[in-house]
Every structure is written in structure tokens, then in C-alpha cells.
Amino acid sequence: MDSVTNLEARLRAVEDRLEIQALAARFSDAVNERDVTAFAQLWASGRPIWEIGPPPQSRAEGIDEIIAMLRRLFQIERYFMQMTHSGVVTIDGDRATARFVERERGQGDDTYYDNLAVYDDVLVREPAGWRFLERHYRYRFLDQTPFEGNAFPVTR
Amino acid sequence: MDSVTNLEARLRAVEDRLEIQALAARFSDAVNERDVTAFAQLWASGRPIWEIGPPPQSRAEGIDEIIAMLRRLFQIERYFMQMTHSGVVTIDGDRATARFVERERGQGDDTYYDNLAVYDDVLVREPAGWRFLERHYRYRFLDQTPFEGNAFPVTR
Amino acid sequence: MDSVTNLEARLRAVEDRLEIQALAARFSDAVNERDVTAFAQLWASGRPIWEIGPPPQSRAEGIDEIIAMLRRLFQIERYFMQMTHSGVVTIDGDRATARFVERERGQGDDTYYDNLAVYDDVLVREPAGWRFLERHYRYRFLDQTPFEGNAFPVTR
Fold first, then answer.
1. DSSP assignment of A99-136, as one string?
2. What pLDDT shows up at residue C2?
3. Would the pLDDT of A86 be above 80?
4. Which residues of B touch A11 (CB under 8 A)?
């Protein structure tokens, strides 16, 4: 029984790690597929914080402001892709921090956006699973000069 | 015994998720390393479907057509790298769907290819493990104008 | 009891895979965050090898040379991001090989660096966990012509 308890703790650690990685993946998927409903489910109850930049800077506190900020960004970036690369995750009980390497490309009406950045995250385990309590997007490279090629709307 | 059965089910769920992520990683590795044998092992028996685009569009049904399509693409893209980012995976018994964020860069004789896309996938669990039943590559950004720099052949 | 032993072996296989992926993620994080201490902890005892290129080529053997090489690269690339994508991992007892898809962007004083590559790795399991015994960075695309936009230093 002791060995089963020990196995359960190890398995739980694996599940936690994978769930947090999946949460970051679901974030990219929701913004790329322009799925506001899926996006809303990624955030902790209470007063989660979503911050991008500076520069440029956007900041929202609470799920209503977060959804409003997402809709504003969707209006600016008519075509948009977020690419989530590897991340480091540190779990401490029901709290975790993570940092994911990101790249984004966006295009609007005469606007262009290509950047490299990291997302510095704070996560909490809630009854329904891990959720973002804070996401801070820190730019490392930012290019807003025009790029070539075609962009295609999301269809399925 | 009950707790062991429960642990086994949870472990199986973790293994499934990791195996599907590994399958997508093996896909990128096989095309990047130009390994046709490894590529052939990623597909389900029966009549798997591999579709890219439009635009441009390529489509193959069945492993023979799929291998022929890969060889055609290798001729066009003499230098090629596929970058697989995060993906969302939904498992339902022996079936799964997934969507991975992709970026590709290719170069041929006077051709250039740089794109961002998603792979929409259907997977099945076969006796030997998870395999692709369908892969649909949907472009989001596509740039075929010349880029700078050098490309290097695969060597080891 | 037999089923518990079997579960433990399967769980260990999952942990090994995740630990190796986390090691590659920690490598990118350490170079991106310019954290020499974290970087030093990723390497095996004995005489690990870190090789980049050619071209250009850098090579170090042993942790002292490896740290010196990292510091040299930090001087050249004042702004730098390494993006680790998917990788294939093959584990054989306490040894493993892996190949990760990479992209890097760097900028220095009048130098520019944008590349796609793979990291061919050899890993060993040590008492404290998996470590890199060898990393070989093989360029597939390399562009050192100027790019546009702004770069930002690491801050937190």
C-alpha cells in the first residue's frame, strides 16, 4: 500500500506537469482559432491578471477585462498566430510558476507584428484543474515593419 | 487492487498523450531528416489521408500515395525544416483528435517557402501504438518570396 | 505486487521522457535568461561536449570550457532567444539520445543571427537526474544579414 501511495504521488506530479503544459497549449490554440469561450476557461477564478508588454502595453484584471482585451486584440490582429515553444514549470503544491518561449505573428489593416517573447506565468490548482492566475508577456524582439506573403482567415 | 486499477487508467491516459505528442515530433523529425522509412511508420493501416493546403494543395490517400507525395515534396524542397510547436490533444478511447501549431521553411531551385499553419489530425490506436489516420495542413501565413542566408543539407 | 512493479516501470519511462524534455527546455531558458548557474547544472560530470556548427564553429569539452564558451557567446549575442520545438527521444537504460528542432535569433553590435537547426544530443542518467553528455548543434538554415525591429534586454 505504501508503494501504491508513492506511485500515486509520482503520477500526480507527472499529471500536474502535463496539465500545465496543456494549459499553455490551449491558450495558443484558443487565440489562434479565435475561440473566446475556450480562452475564458483558462483563467483562475478571483482576479486573474493578463499583461502584455510594454511596449506596446495591454493589461487586464479579472475575467471580464481579460475577455474585453482579447476581443480588442482580435480586432487589431485580423490574422494572428501564437507559437508556444518549450517552457520550464516549477510546481509547489497547489501553486506553480512557468516560463514559456513564445513567438507571434499578426497582421491587421496596414499593421504588421512579429515578435519573440516569454510568458512569465503564475498558476493555481482549482477544483477543475490548473488555471492561469497571472500571465506576463515580456518582449525580447519586436518588429512592426511590413512583411511579405499572404495571410488566411481561420476556417474549418 | 482497486487503487492499482485506477492508477493504471491514469497512467494509460498520460502515456496516450505523450505517445501522440511523440508521433507529431517523429513526423517533423522524419521530414527534416529526410527519412522515408521512419515517415512510413507514422500512418494508420487502411486508407490514411495526408492533405496540405490549399494553397498550394497536395493530397494523398493510402500509404503508397503518401510516400509518393513525400518524395515529390523532397524534390521541390531541397532544404526543409518543419517546426512543431505546442498542440492540443483530445483522446476518446482508441480515437483522438489533435491540432498542432506548425512553421515550415523550405528552399529549392529558385523557390522559397516560409509558412505558419496548423495540422488538424485524426489519430487511431492500433496494436503497435497511435498512428495518424488523417493530417490536414491548414495555412495561416504563406510567404514564397526569396529570403536571405544559406541552407545546409542533412548530414550526420 | 507484480502489477505494481510493472506500473512503476511504466511510470519511470514516462518520468524519464519528461525529464529529458524538461532538460532541453531548461537549456533554452538558461541561455535566454542569461543564467550561467542554471546552465552549468545541465551537464554531465566527467567531460561533456558542447559543439555548435560549423559554420560558424564553437566547441568546448568539460564544464569549465563550456561555461567559458557560453560567456563568449553572451558577449557576441547581446540579445538572444533560442526556441526549442519538438524532439524525438530514445532511452536505453541510463543512456539516451535525442534530437530537438531549434531556431535562434541573436543580435550584437552590428551582427545579426537567425538560424534553424537541430540539436543532436547524448544524455546520461546521473544520481541527480538526466544530464547532457553531448550536444551538437547542426545548422540547416543560417542568415546573418540585418533584420528590422527592436531588441530588449532581459529584465524581471
1. EEEEEEEEE-SS-EEEEEEEEEEEEEEETTEEEEEEEE
2. 74
3. yes
4. 7, 10-11, 14
